[in-house]
Backbone:
């Protein structure tokens, strides 16, 4: 299962590549466990100054592997929640290169990133209520801070998909480019950040994040409780069951 998450470290940049392309990089328990391990290494390592997360030029991630997610919820072991906590607690710059689908956690994790490069073939979607679920990964706070109540409600509750140019307009991504440029552009940004004085970078990042960090852990825990509760409802179970008929 290790080849589903690839890593590479070079000149202060630790790159994590989602590599389950036959499943549109849908995240399962093993992948979440691997991501948690790699985030822990990147956080603790003195040689890592910036983390870059990517798929390829055609796909970022379709979100959770629903079958695996249902089984994990039934067993009471939702490792995805542990990954969200690790993501929120990470204290170094995170850059993302997005292309193709970015669904659910594929969009909400971008709210924890410091810069995002999106290919013009990107498609973002937050289909929580359509699945009988609620926002996760702190998105009920972070998206509202970013876009205001009305726009956050529109994206999180109506769950309509939006494209790269809209994401740029919303301030969710920094730049839009051609698919064959997305990985190199993100790598260049990460390298530029990694070359800066690290104490100054980490301090600046912490100051920028301070308004959300004060309450983010509690928000994530509240979202998690409601998410687990909703997964156990008949409404959610019936919706999810339709995907496997």
Residues:
């Amino acid at each position: 299962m290790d080849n589903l998450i690839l890593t590479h470290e070079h000149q202060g940049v630790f790159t994590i590549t989602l590599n389950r392309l036959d499943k549109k990089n849908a995240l399962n328990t093993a992948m979440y466990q691997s991501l948690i391990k790699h985030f822990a290494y990147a956080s603790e390592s003195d040689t890592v100054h910036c983390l870059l997360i990517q798929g390829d030029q055609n796909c970022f991630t379709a979100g959770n592997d629903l079958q695996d997610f249902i089984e994990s919820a039934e067993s009471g072991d939702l490792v995805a929640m542990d990954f969200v906590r690790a993501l929120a607690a990470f204290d170094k710059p995170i850059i993302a290169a997005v292309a193709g689908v970015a669904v659910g956690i594929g969009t909400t994790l971008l709210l924890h990133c410091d810069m995002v490069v999106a290919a013009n073939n990107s498609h973002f979607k937050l289909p929580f209520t359509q699945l009988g679920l609620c926002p996760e990964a702190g998105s009920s706070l972070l998206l509202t801070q970013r876009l205001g109540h009305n726009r956050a409600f529109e994206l999180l509750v109506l769950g309509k998909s939006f494209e790269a140019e809209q994401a740029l307009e919303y301030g969710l991504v920094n730049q839009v480019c051609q698919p064959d440029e997305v990985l190199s552009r993100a790598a260049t940004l990460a390298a530029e950040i990694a070359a800066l004085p690290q104490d100054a970078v980490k301090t600046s990042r912490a100051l920028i994040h301070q308004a959300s960090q004060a309450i983010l852990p509690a928000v994530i825990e509240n979202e998690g409780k409601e998410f687990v509760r909703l997964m156990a409802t008949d409404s959610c179970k019936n919706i999810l069951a339709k995907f496997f008929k």
